[in-house]
Amino acid sequence: MINLLVGNLMKVGAAITGNVSPGYRPFIDPIHIEDYWIVLLLPLVFIISLTYKTIKIDDLSKLASQTFYLTAQIIVFMVLAASALWLLGALV
Amino acid sequence: MSKPHTDPNPIFNPHAAVAGWVVPGLGHFILGQRKRGIILAVAILSLWLLGLFIGGISVIDRNDRTEGANTRSWWYYGQALIAPSIAVEMFRNNLKENDPEAYEPSFGRMAEQGTLYTALAGMLNLLAIIDVLYCDPAYRRQRDMAKTGEPIDLSAEAQA
């Protein structure tokens, strides 16, 4: 799992550095990592969890553990939902 | 935000809400919840900047009617929940007026991801704005300290 994640992150890094036009300007022009868009969901989920927990919890010393727990929950349920939909599509 | 209706003396903080809209986390910061404010600023601004980095400046476009994406302007209202998005939109408009090919428009997944990131950053900022708009930070701090067993210094809260 970690190898897959690291491998995908390396591919994203290579895509960012390799698939930009010569006149590329960061934040002005888009980067071209269409094939690896799914990896971009990970930072999205993490930051959503971090922001939600920062507002929600009273004791910030528990923020890291609560954030990682919520991130893991969201990812697991996304994978389960995707698997269920895939299964449904394959059977029907 | 965790228990807004149980606060004994909730305070209406429109100045903190406006500050939080201009710079995410600033509302918490000026109300004395500095650590919370800094974490919110880093998290929300990172998401917003990542969105711009992925999709480029064209993801913040109030009048986008191209490529059949006539609903993208709705995303702008989410993006505008962070004030710098409005500045970026004005900057993008200026660029486009001077030179229609001043920037490379984003399409497909990159446009989707960039739009999603920036709009979600705006909506998360709305949560932070609501949190400071109607709360009593002293009460929250008092509750935090009661849980951790730290002494409660209400005079410092009053000064903050």
Topology of helices and strands:
The complex is a heterodimer of chains A (92) and B (160).
Chain A: H1 2-18, H2 41-56, H3 63-91
Helix pairs in contact in A: 2-3
Chain B: H1 14-22, H2 26-30, H3 34-55, H4 72-79, H5 83-98, H6 108-133, H7 137-148, H8 154-159
Helix pairs in contact in B: 1-6, 3-6, 4-6
Most extensive interface: pair and counts? A-B, 29 and 43 residues
Tally of helical segments of chain B: 8
Secondary structure: helix percent of chain B: 55-70%
Name the quaternary structure. heterodimer
Strand content of chain A: under 5%
Q: Care to count the β-strands of chain B?
A: 0
Count of separate structural domains of chain A? 1
Query: Rounded to an integer, what's the Rg of chain B over CA atoms?
Result: 19 Å
Features:
heterodimer, A: 92 residues, mainly alpha, 3 helices, 0% strand, B: 160 residues, 65% helix, disordered C terminus
Can you walk me through this structure?
The complex is a heterodimer of chains A (92) and B (160). Chain A has 92 residues and is mostly helical. Chain A has one domain (2-91). Chain A has three helices and no strands. The radius of gyration of chain A is 17 Å and the shape is flat. The model of chain A has no long low-confidence stretch (mean pLDDT 81). By secondary structure, chain B is mainly α. Chain B is 65% helix and 0% strand. Chain B contains eight helices and no strands. Chain B has helices at residues 14-22, 26-30, 34-55, 72-79, 83-98, 108-133, 137-148, 154-159. Residues 154-160 of chain B have low confidence and may be disordered.
